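Minutes, methods subgroup
Present: GH (chair), OT, SY

1. OT presented the first of two proteins processed in the latest run. Sequence and structure tokens recorded below as shown on screen.
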Amino acid sequence: HISTTSVYGEVVSGHFTETSPLLPSEHVYIHTKQESERLLQEYTPDSDLIILRPGSICAEEQSYWGDRQVERMKEADVITWVHPDDVVPWVHTDNLVEMIVLAATNAHNGDIFNAIDANLPETDFRMKLITASDKPYQIPKRAAEHATFANDRIKQLGYIPIRTPESTIEQLVKSF
């Protein structure tokens, strides 16, 4: 089952492992993802249920956190949605596929994995895109989001990223 790190709730700080509690949320996306996990765990206890919780899935093409961020920035008069102190639980699409294959072949029933490559500071991610955009920038009026997510469990399966944030961001910067 592909879930999301958002199941931990509307968190802005803290460090989350696969055993961290899922905080109740009224946010529809979070609530439905939490409920999906609960229902699968409740009604399929004897199946080969494995849950992966990816963070912000990024790629150079067809990705909200990749090329769609670039397009959104190109269209904006002022970029107002990126806080420079945020931390993003980043995973490349290709790496997520690798994690799925590893989990499907090596994990056990009931295993849960945070599926992220890195807890990436915005200074190493979208702030670079903003600089490349040459657009005016305004810090949003909200608290910075510093939540981080452990990825030790997926690495214990032998996971090694095939795509790096640096190479992906370099390609996204070139698209400006």
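2. SY then presented the second protein from the same run.
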Amino acid sequence: MTALPASGRAWHLAARPHGWPEPGDVALREVPVTEPGEGRILVRNLHFSVDPYMRGRMNDVKSYAPPYVLNQPMDGGAVGEVIASRAEGFEVGDHVLHGLGWREYAEFPAGRGTKVDASLAPLSAYLGVLGMTGLTAYAGLFEVASFKEGDAVFVSGAAGAVGSQVGQLARIKGASRVIGSAGSDAKVKLLVEEYGFDAAFNYKNGPVKDQLKEAAPDGIDVYFDNVGGDHLEAALSSFNLHGRATICGMIAQYNSTEPSPAPRNLALVIGKRLRLQGMLVGDHFALQPQFVKDVAGWLASGELKYHETVVEGIENGFDAFLGVLRGENTGKMIVTLNG
């Protein structure tokens, strides 16, 4: 058997951020690499995911995901190659999806990993379009928002990993109109020309409320919220009767140190009989088989497209995370580790 490395690097949370995370809040440290115990595997990570929800885990507050522990490696989605195994069903060379990202090597019980097939899709896709972000889009649109053919759909953060998939799924399933917001003119062009959105706008170019009304003159029936703040306020204003919103994320507020004033028009929920529902992807794993079947088919047919923003090297992992919070990614942000 090939000799195992003695150590590898892992990102640790060194301090709780106040507002925007700073370089001093994290540290890239060497940690020992150990042989796997009985029923466990050792994986060399090839790609790991950085996601907006990780900002909340840096705070020491009770939430749906436990906070990161100070001076311990952070975690998140990752895919890698088994380099040592003492678990039945896992061989050296297998590719595994698991939850111990932010590090070069991960040793864990085999039951916490899922084998993935690199011949069906690039391995990084299992962190995005075929992974939890993809399932978030699928479940959030079809199950949480109760999408039906003919609905007009508005997506905020529409060029991101989740938002870009939501808009395309709505188009594929017969939306009457799909509108997206994004943070640059280049992203707006991508939404319309490649992803097939009917309209899109740059939220930096003017009030979101005004731009949405222009893009959706007949109103909207579904809003998929990745941003919160003024985007949610605008959606409430544009909703038709019995509109539904999936509240998936509120990236506009993740680094705020003061409460957000918006939405200031929440009373519209009453007269319009709106439904606003928060979602966590972990509540929807029962949809996984149908999700994989549907999305794999749409990828194969070319109906569904995706982009990734790839940052090379574990040493650049924190910068990649900050890039997600700033909206610098197009599609899924992936950190690829140098082999």
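Chair's summary of item 2: The chain has a mean pLDDT of 94.
Next meeting: continue with the remaining queue.
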